[in-house]
Write a structure and sequence with these properties.
17% strand
Length: 192
């Protein structure tokens, strides 16, 4: 086969397009699953529609070129890369709310105060641990603020027991004001 008779569409362009389509549809599928598990009832179906539309288009192109192994490799590689991109996007969006629970033998009041000074809502209770009295501290934080809350806790009492759980929904409560929009679907225009 010489360069003049090489089919660039079948062996290069089509596999690249199939790869990119799979990256996009699998990324959307990853986000759709995450949004579904977090109760985003309006966004999840829209993402599902777009995801399946792209998937059907990519599959149709793959079936047309059934003898082209490079197109199959593009399809499989796009699926793998789409999983990575979807997880990366979800981490960048940092959507969700977390309950951070602390159990501290010492410095309970100092931890609670430091969290409050950092702008977090805090509930502190006295409890009984296996080695005596403890402070049980709860704070509910946006996912994007978890690292900041942990930094405050570690600075005051690095040996504190910490557990973090995802919260499906919240009503009322105290959350620090957002510094900037973290949702790619919402943008704030600057005043001129």
């Amino acid at each position: 086969m010489d360069a003049a008779s090489f089919d660039w569409n079948a062996w290069v362009l089509l596999p690249i397009l199939i790869f990119l389509a799979r990256v996009l549809d699998v990324s959307l599928g990853t986000l759709r699953i995450i949004f579904t598990s977090r109760g985003q009832r309006r966004l999840a179906p829209l993402l599902g529609f777009i995801e399946v539309f792209i998937w059907v288009a990519a599959l149709a192109q793959l079936v047309k070129s059934a003898q082209n192994i490079v197109a199959y490799l593009g399809y499989a590689a796009g699926f793998a890369a789409g999983n990575y991109v979807g997880i990366w996007l979800e981490n960048r969006l940092a959507i969700g709310t977390y309950a951070v629970r602390l159990i501290a033998r010492e410095a309970g009041e100092q931890i609670a105060q430091a969290l409050r000074e950092a702008g977090f809502g805090v509930t502190r209770m006295t409890g009984e641990g296996s080695a005596g009295p403890v402070s049980v501290i709860y704070t509910i934080v946006r996912r994007r603020d978890v690292e900041q809350a942990l930094a405050v806790i570690h600075a005051v009492a690095p040996q504190t027991f910490i557990s973090i759980e995802e919260v499906r929904s919240t009503e009322r409560g105290f959350f620090p004001p957002a510094e900037k929009p973290h949702n790619i679907f919402l943008t704030r225009r600057k005043a001129k």
